[in-house]
Amino acid sequence: MTAAAAPGSPAPSPEPGGSPEPGGSSEPGGSSEPGGSSASAPPPAAGSIPGRAGSGPAPWKGWAAVCAVALGIFCLITSELLPVGLLTPVGADLGVSDGTAGLMVTVPGLVAGFCAPLVTVAAGRLDRRLVLCVLIALTAAANLAAALAPGFAVVLAARLLVGVGVGGFWAIAGGLAVRLVPERHVGRATALVFGGVPTASVLGVPAGTLLGELGGWRTAFAAVGVLGLVTLTALVVLLPPLPPTRHIGFRQLTALLRENRAVRAGVLVTFLVVTGQFAAYTFVRPILQDVSGVDAGFVSTLLLGYGVAGVAGNFLAGVRDAYRTLLVISAALSVILALIAVLPGPAAGTTLLLAWGLAYGGVSVSVQGWMIKAAPAATEAASSLMVAMFNLAIAAGALFGGLAVDGISAPAAPLGGAALMLVAAVTVWATAIRRRPDRVG
Q1: What DSSP element (H or E) covers 415?
Q2: Cα separation of 198 and 281, whole Å?
Q3: How many alpha carbons lie under 13 Å from residue 160 in its C-beta half-sphere?
Q4: Which of 122, 178, 199, 314 is at 20 to 30 A from 308, Cα to Cα?
């Protein structure tokens, strides 16, 4: 990312393709560390955030702001994935099949994919703090509306609003660490922000599943709505003003995708990995019950273990090379998903689920690290492209998995996911590692 302008004045707009420095070249293989920056000048110190004139160094404020953004990511991903553990009860109550209930994941993923670049462009010169607060408030309202929905159509309408919040918030928040903490801490701060993704699996999805079992699925949606209001309060209190450092238009986004091969490769890998993941994970409950023979009462406990493993995977990946990490992750997941589709027994299912969580936990921070290295001078634009594809892939994966489950059987979903993971591993090798072997030694 280019050096920030003086507080209160936006920085000049960079070239669409990013920086000519290593990491911003058209080859995916920059020299900066994942999550770091190869900018020509360092970002502002913590506490000296663009748009806050006269603010002095206050590192704790920067980390508090990072924690608030991480809570926002946690709330949004919990909102997006909450139906994963509630497909069966929602479907039974509202009279739809598991495959149709999977649209509760498909719809927000699809909307988030389109809204990531749209919100980034529409935000224009608005303070990013205001934009994030509006988006989290919208998500809270959508979850409360779903809790009161009289039918499945209303639930889907509320899920559409969740997609708007997820896409816009994630696209803007993904590159904020460089503006909140000193340069040497950007990697760890980025891992903390994206720690909200696997932590949503640890606490959000299992807790929502448990609440659904104890008080009904409407209670789970209402609880996430209240969490959104708590998150809004945290953002208002802890996040400093964040005026935009540059204006981003659709022309800049398309030029970045067209001219930067590293960005294109990262977007493609994101699509393959995430589509494969959600083809299987959206239907993890029927897979565990039908293939592994896990009792329905233990599903929420196993999802908790999956999430704990995912948090560990996130922080392990956050300090490693993004390219090599994604190669290992995609190769490992191709094996894990294939095995969980065919190996019977609760012991095998539990072991594979934990390995699944550990491997997938590093995906979000790794693809963000890929984008920062690929376009260090245009991180918000690159992040919006990645987030758009990430969420479109969630929708595609949920849709593909639903068709496989309804049309074939539960094991067909993870088998299809395994095939996509294998293609992703080959793509990472061909586009990032084979081209630059010196970068990953």
Answers
A1: helix 412-428
A2: 13
A3: 6
A4: 178
